[in-house]
Input
Amino acid sequence: MPGISKVIQNKIKRYQNFYQQKSRSPLVCFIPWMLEDRIDKKKYNIDTRPLDKWSFPEECTAYMENRYKITRALTDMTASINDDFIPTLIPQLGTGINSAYFSQSELTFSNITSWSECVIKEWSDLDSLKINHKSQWYQALLSMLHKAVSLCDEDICVQTFEHFGPMDMANALRGTALFTDIYDAPDKVRRLLDISAAAIIELEQTLFRQIPFYENGTVIWGSWTPGHNIFLSEDNSDLMSPAIYKEFTLPFTQKIAAAFDGCWIHHHAKGIKIHTEIAKVKKLKALQISLDPYDRRPIDQLEEIIAADPDTVHITRCEPKDVYKYIDTFKKGRLIIWISSDDITEAARAVDYIKNKTA
Output
């Protein structure tokens, strides 16, 4: 398996100090994804086909190789920035595969994502849910991860997967009926969530054996956490009340976190109302909250977020101009700040400003 460069080792050392609370200074990452359109596609021999123009699962490893080239190009483009971002390659074919490896349904692709069919039409269908290790999408994930590990050099790390959380999985398997099922058939919903949690745990246990253990930690979405931690998406829980999250999602998310050294949870500004409930997950290593187009930005609520859960490691995104406005707030919590910009020089200046003012 590939080793890691001195640059990555130094970044991980900063994460280790952060998690050991030897340093309260925020970590800061320039997120390079906005720069994809500026990559020299010819130089890196990048295939520009949209997702629905590939033939899957036949071309899944070729697609993974193409994602490596994109990651390599972005890593080269941003090498001069003195930040804490760890370039990361993740097997993925849009969100559909997150449940299709379990449901064995077909995938439908758009130009940027995918989705799968709901397979729980009747509650009796629960009895047929079982991971088939020989199914095409389960095998696709294994082959993509194997390819990622073989490609990644010392500058790029590998993440196992972007797992659905249990409620996201249950929603994909059951569809929107799930949201009324909570009231009409709560025991059935709990069984579905338990089955979903078990499938997520089983997949992660299999995938993690295939990747390096980076300085006794896990690289997730460009950050490092101590121990073996699992990425979980709680997007669909964002549509629920705090009480529903506490009763239906939290016990099963907790079950998944308990199976490992902890978890790294992603959700959205739409679900700010459940943010403090998610923060109650034991062994939670980081809680990332993404932007939504019609909701108040998390960065503009950061003071409130920190005050509600001062010991939680919060990750959220901002623009370079926000850095100068909220620099004093950055000193108050346990934060990993993501800076997003299409201007590398401006972003680098913002990164340096945070590091200088919070050291």
User: Anything to note?
Assistant: Residues 268 and 289 are 5 Å apart (CA to CA). The chain has a mean pLDDT of 96. The two ends are 35 Å apart (CA to CA).
